[in-house]
TrEMBL record, chain A:
Residues annotated as transmembrane: 55-77, 98-115, 121-140, 152-170, 182-202
Membrane topology: Multi-pass membrane protein
Protein name: ER lumen protein-retaining receptor
Keyword Endoplasmic reticulum appears in the UniProt entry: yes
Organism: Miscanthus lutarioriparius
Amino acid sequence: MNVFRLAGDMTHLLSVVVLLLKIHTIKSCAGISLKTQELYAVVFAARYLDLFVHFVSLYNTVMKLVFLASSFSIVWYMKRHKIVRRTYDKDHDTFRHYVLVLPCLLLALLINEKFTFREVMWAFSIYLEAVAIFPQLVLLQRTRNIDNLTGQYVFFLGAYRVLYILNWIYRYFTEPHFVHWISWVAGIVQTLLYADFFYYYIMSWKNNVKLELPA
Amino acid sequence: DSEDAKHDEL
């Protein structure tokens, strides 16, 4: 494993930790999109079907289980926890799942590395992950007061994507057979979605003012 | 192989 990949996994993990911290200790999910969290739960469930088939390493298995468990427990907290669910900004989180899920499923049926159930599910998870942040970004734009933890959560998620691209560039030069167009193209699209957010996040940090996205 | 490399990512 190269350093970019490890750093990418760690920022991804950190984003989940930040979100769990907010939910678990502050008992608030204000500014967090349930739609995005549900989409991530679907992404991990579809991608990690290989847990039953492949064993890569202990690290790999543990990380996959952590992402599965954390994504489902976040959804549970936002929907069922009696205190947390009251902080959910339902009125502004209006993005519809099927707008993202159906095109991704269709695309996965058309463009995949092999037409098997697992490969189609893998491609579907890659496409869906690329756009799953969309409801969250829309919600941020509608939120007047974006708290620090929410800003950091999205920042770490974006950082994870940037680091994964550096990881692919590294792997491309060190492992000649490592070419996965599907994940590369989807990954670049996914990273570009954060570009706007990054700009405002860094600006707010530089000028020491509260993060706010223009409508 | 390439297949394994793909599943090694998260």
